[in-house]
Structures are given as structure tokens and as C-alpha cells.
Write a structure and sequence with these properties.
Structural class: alpha/beta
Oligomer: single chain
Strand content: 15-25%
Number of helices: 11
Largest sheet: 9 strands, mixed
Length: 281
């Protein structure tokens, strides 16, 4: 439901949720606490049964749109939010992840500085259930063949793009439930979107035992195999699949090592801001 009058915003954030009430308020607070830019915030809940609707209603006056109703999974929920979004820049934040302070203002600034760029992503920190930093996720630039050949190294909550891109390439594939983000990034590359990576931290990605990719490993393998069949570069189709995957992994690890991406030291200021966010709940 629309819960506040429409007003111009610089960035739209969609949070999709299903039975994640344990983390939901922290996620919502991390968006509402953003300063320095106008944010349109949409929350799409899949008719959760764990009290999530009550939590969302508590924040309703600060949301631009929210709904709690049955859906066919995360991809459909996200598309619902993306189609309601009105800002030039969009992104999504799952209900167990968080945005870091000042992230959205910086993202909007970067888009203004780079008018020819279609999408921008930064780094993230991996956090545990209490909001403690496990390790930084400092990543490399956008290389589609490394993404499809090895794994999806782009931190999803730290990726943002211009909403107009959907007019050209369409929305998320609703038949994918675990790799919908990877498929969208690969489609960005296929359609010639200009992707900028910045070596800055935008988000916290929650690590816990109920993450979908951990609960459904067999399905993840199937979806990844399908994407490799569809998106692997033409030159690689003449090589054994195992060889291509090894080459992609070696390439990714080499590039990440060159930028110090395997350091376990996160910027000190991030730990303090994450603690404040979680201690308030």
C-alpha cells in the first residue's frame, strides 16, 4: 500500500522479506538512517507468519510503499518493488542485510559524477547474526566471464543501477530463485551496460545458517549450470568446462590478490557503526 505522498527521490531501495523478522527491523533502520539524499523505500513481504507484518507496520509512516501478500518467491517480490519504484537509481536490500551509514548519498553522488555509467557497485563486509564483522569483501572490477565461469563475486546489496536499464533489458527472471542477481549482472554485460566498481564499502552482508544458498545447494548448482550454458563466452565453448572454470577461478583470485582483496582487516570505523546499528535493536 502507498503510505506516504509521492515525492521526488534520488534513489529507490526495495527490501524483500519472508519470515526474516529476526533481522528485519535492523535492515529497515539501516535504510531509514541514511542521510544526505532523498530515499524512496519500498518493503515487499511475502505474507510472512513470524510477526514481520507487525514490524513493517511500525515503520509504515516512513515507507513509500509496502505490502504483505503471497508471492511466487524473491524474484517476483523484487520485480514488484522495482516496478513501483520511481527514482532514477535503484537497488535492493534483502531483509537480513544492512546499508552502511552514508552509503546512498555516496552512490547518488557517484552517479551524478558519472552520467554515462549504468550501474555502480562497491564493497561489503560480511557480518554475523549479532552484527560483528566476519571479514571484508573487497572485490574486483566487473568481468562477466569471471562471474559466469567461477562465481558471483559482486556483493548484491552494494550494487545499484539506473532504473532506465530495465526498459532495455527487462526485469529479474522469476524462474530463478537463487541466482537472479547473477543473471541480471550477466545481462548487464550482454547488453553493453557500463558498470563501475568503486573501492568503497556500502553494505553489510549477513552470514547465517538459513541463507537460501546454504539451504538449497543442489538447486544452486542447477541454476549456475544453466547460466553457464547461456552466458559463457563464445571462445570458451570449445574448451572443456572444467578447464574454463579453473581458468576463471585463477583469473579472479589473481586479480583479487593484486588489490589486497584477501585481507581480513576491515576499516575500523565500519565495526563501530555496525555495532551502533545492532545495539539499538
Amino acid at each position: 500500500m502507498k503510505v506516504q505522498p509521492s515525492s521526488p527521490a534520488d534513489v529507490s531501495i526495495i527490501t524483500c522479506s519472508y519470515n526474516q523478522n529476526r533481522f528485519l527491523s535492523t535492515t529497515i533502520e539501516s535504510v531509514l538512517a541514511q542521510t544526505g539524499t532523498a530515499v524512496e523505500y519500498l518493503v515487499i513481504d511475502g505474507a510472512s507468519t513470524d510477526g514481520s507484518r507487525t514490524t513493517i507496520e511500525r515503520y509504515a509512516s516512513q515507507l513509500s510503499y509496502w505490502v504483505s501478500e503471497p508471492d511466487n518467491g524473491q524474484s517476483e517480490a523484487l520485480n514488484k518493488g522495482l516496478r513501483h519504484a520511481t527514482s532514477e537509481v535503484v537497488g535492493w536490500l534483502c531483509s537480513d542485510d544492512v546499508l552502511l551509514p552514508g552509503a546512498l548519498a555516496r552512490v547518488v553522488e557517484l552517479f551524478k559524477q558519472n552520467p554515462d555509467v549504468d550501474a555502480i557497485y562497491g564493497n561489503a563486509v560480511l557480518i554475523d547474526t549479532s552484527g560483528n564483522i566476519v571479514r571484508p569483501k573487497r572485490e574486483i572490477n566487473f568481468h562477466p566471464w569471471l562471474l559466469v565461469g567461477d562465481h558471483n563475486y559482486i556483493p548484491q546489496p552494494a550494487m545499484f543501477w539506473r532504473r532506465r536499464v530495465h526498459e532495455r533489458i527487462g526485469y529479474l527472471r522469476e524462474d530463478l530463485h537463487l541466482t537472479m542477481d547473477l543473471e541480471l549482472w550477466l545481462r548487464f554485460g550482454k547488453h553493453g551496460c557500463r558498470i563501475l566498481h568503486v573501492d568503497e564499502y556500502f553494505a553489510g552482508m549477513r552470514c547465517h545458517a538459513l541463507q537460501k544458498v546454504l539451504v538449497h545447494p543442489a538447486e544452486l548448482i542447477v541454476e549456475n549450470a544453466g547460466l553457464r550454458d547461456e552466458y559463457q563466452p563464445s571462445w570458451s565453448r570449445w574448451l572443456p568446462d572444467g578447464l574454463v572454470r579453473v581458468a576463471a577461478r585463477v583469473g579472479r583470485i589473481t586479480l583479487k590478490s593484486m588489490i589486497g582483496g584477501y585481507s581480513r582487516r576491515a576499516p575500523a570505523a565500519l565495526a563501530a557503526s555496525l555495532r551502533r546499528l545492532h545495539d539499538s535493536h
